[in-house]
């Protein structure tokens, strides 16, 4: 008698999503970034207060980063050098990840990397942004003093957050946003 063949189990295939990494942006990324901003922020993006800051003070293109997964661009971040009360720093943003690549760590990686790159230059002491505390505070951003920093438009001060290695700056940073000196 021939023994019945044991059922052969199908090979177990585990497909883990690839991990994002970052690289400097180049002019070839301009179309991707423009389309990403349109998807992430919509037509209202041009009226945002952070956009008005970037209209007055140019971004530092050498700090623009792109996140990629397997060679496919999936996120971007910009930095605008500014000063507040005579202290030089940066305004982070826009930060956006393509909806098809979210929750893989690209957004936090971009925020952390661009901040580390900028502060490592030793020319600025803080990285300011307008964003959700739940997202940024676990990464080291802290609330600022409500009303202390003057923006060229309306802003929810609960969302004005700062990252700094100076232990006192979150409570002392005050004044209108001005040019990086
Ligand atoms: C916010 C954004 C950049 C996050 O990008 P991402 O690549 O998905 O971010 P990460 O993968 O690093 O982090 C995802 C985690 O943050 C959480 N998260 C996303 N947005 C959040 C927010 N506004 N507040 C709190 N948590 C948030 C997600 O739920 C997820 O949680 P999980 O890890 O427990 O699943 C992306 O959702 C986006 O582009 N949004 C539209 C533009 C925008 O709002 N930009 C930020 C302006 S300050």
UniProtKB/TrEMBL annotation:
Pfam families: Acetyltransf_1. InterPro entries: Acyl_CoA_acyltransferase, GNAT_dom. Residues 20-162 form the N-acetyltransferase domain. CDD domains: NAT_SF (cd04301). This is N-acetyltransferase GCN5. It comes from Devosia nitrariae.
């Amino acid at each position: 008698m021939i023994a019945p063949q044991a059922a052969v189990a199908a090979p177990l295939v585990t497909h883990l999503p690839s991990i994002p990494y970052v690289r400097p942006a180049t002019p070839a990324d301009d179309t991707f970034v423009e389309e990403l901003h349109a998807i992430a922020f919509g037509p209202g993006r041009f009226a945002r207060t952070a956009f008005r800051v970037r209209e007055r003070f140019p971004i530092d293109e050498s700090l623009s980063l792109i996140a990629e997964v397997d060679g496919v661009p999936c996120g971007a971040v910009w930095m605008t050098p500014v000063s507040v009360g005579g202290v030089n720093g940066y305004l982070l943003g826009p930060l956006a990840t393509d909806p098809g690549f979210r929750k893989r760590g690209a957004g936090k990686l971009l925020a952390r990397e661009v901040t580390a790159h900028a502060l490592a230059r030793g020319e600025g002491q803080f990285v300011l942004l307008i964003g959700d505390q739940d997202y940024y505070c676990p990464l080291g951003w802290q609330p600022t003093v409500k009303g202390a920093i003057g923006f060229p438009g309306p802003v929810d001060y609960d969302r004005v957050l700062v990252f700094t290695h100076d232990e006192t700056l979150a409570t002392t940073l005050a004044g209108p946003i001005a040019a990086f000196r």
